[in-house]
Amino acid sequence: MGWVVSCSRRPAAAFVISAAFLAGCASGAASAGSAASVGPERPAFGGQRAEFGASTSGRVVDERVGRCQDVPSDARDPLLADFEQDSVFLRPVPERYGTWYMSNDGSPGGRQAPESYAAERGGYADSNYAVHFRVQGFSEWGAVLGFLLRYAPEEGIKCPFNAEAFQGISFMARGSGRIRVNLGTPETTPAEQDGRCQRGCWDSHGAFVFLKEAWTEHRLPWSAFAQQGWGSAARLNVKELLAVNFSVLREDQPAEIWLDDVKFMTEGGR
Questions:
Q1: Is the pLDDT assigned to residue 259 strictly greater than 80?
Q2: What pLDDT, in 10s, does the model give residues 71-99?
Q3: Average pLDDT over the chain, rounded to whole?
Q4: Distance between CA atoms of 143 and 87, rounded to whole angstroms?
Q5: Is 27 buried (19+), middle (13-18) or exposed (0-12) by CB count in 10 A?
Q6: 245-263: burial string, b at 16+ Cβ within 10 Å, e else
Q7: Are 83 and 100 in contact (CB under 8 A)?
Q8: Most buried in the list 18, 46, 139, 161, measured by CB within 10 Å?
Q9: Neighbours of 239 (CB within 10 A)
């Protein structure tokens, strides 16, 4: 069973995503993000598993197989999303592929707006659009906004993304509450979700950020990301990124997030 997530600001476009689970949490609650509720399925980092490519039929390939064995590091374009494109996909860059999503734990008293991914007017500075995410009342693990990320050199091949050429993640944000920025890697992700973790999975490397009312730039070097310590210990391997998410844990609600200009940090911290 799946549910529909908007692919664009035009309501006619849609992208089907299966339900799943927020990474970094040990509970097995089902996710929800629209009027249609769903039962538990295979977990995925960041809240849900996206079937990559409404127009692509390629499978995700383990990094040890074929073209995923030596994924090159590419620093051509650090900008991941400025939300000006009318699309659920990341900024188009050759051989880089990703999709945005929103999800939550499906608590009966929980409220999420919007119910599915969509950009909204009111971006940072001269920007027209940003993502606006409001949540409260999710009592299992919380709610999440994030994107899946892959290296896609050709049709049918999607590998973990090599971010070694970059220094970290930066983004513009405003709002209220505390969020945790998480990195999904094979070391903390189970095999059925394209990872290698065997036990104590989903204790992803993350960093907490406190939001302010005014737009503020947040720069998180890779050294700022750490596990919470309840799962299997793993080294952060930015050569194999699977996802990045902005989660609101149950204890940090209610919260409101405006997000814009998400990018990799380059030399010099920019």
A1: yes
A2: 999 888 999 999 998 689 999 999 999 99
A3: 78
A4: 22
A5: exposed
A6: bbbbbbebbebbbbbbbbb
A7: no
A8: 46
A9: 16
Q: How many CB atoms lie within 10 A of CB 2?
A: 15
Nearest alpha carbon to residue 85 among 102, 104, 98? 98
Task: Report phi then psi at 241, rounded to 5.
Answer: -85, 135
pLDDT at 87: 84
pTM: 0.77
> Which among 232, 263, 255 is positioned nearest to 24, based on CA atoms?
232
Residue-wise DSSP of the chain:
-EEEEE-SSSTT-EEEEEE---TT----PPPB-SSS--------GGGEEE-S-TT--PEE--TTSGGGTTPPP--S--EEE-S-SSSSBPPPBTTEEEEEEEEE---TT-EEESSS--EEE--STT-SEEEEEEEE---SSEEEEEEEEEEEEETTEEE-B--TTS-EEEEEEEEESEEEEEEE-GGGSBGGGT--B-SSTT--EEEEEE--SS-EEEEEEGGG-B--SSS------TTSB-EEEEEEEGGG-SEEEEEEEEEEE-TT--
Domains of the chain, each with CATH number or no CATH: 2-265 (2.60.120.430)
Q: Does residue 110 contact residue 136 with C-beta atoms inside 8 Å?
A: yes
Give yes or no for residue 108 having a pLDDT over 70: yes
pLDDT above 60 for 206: yes
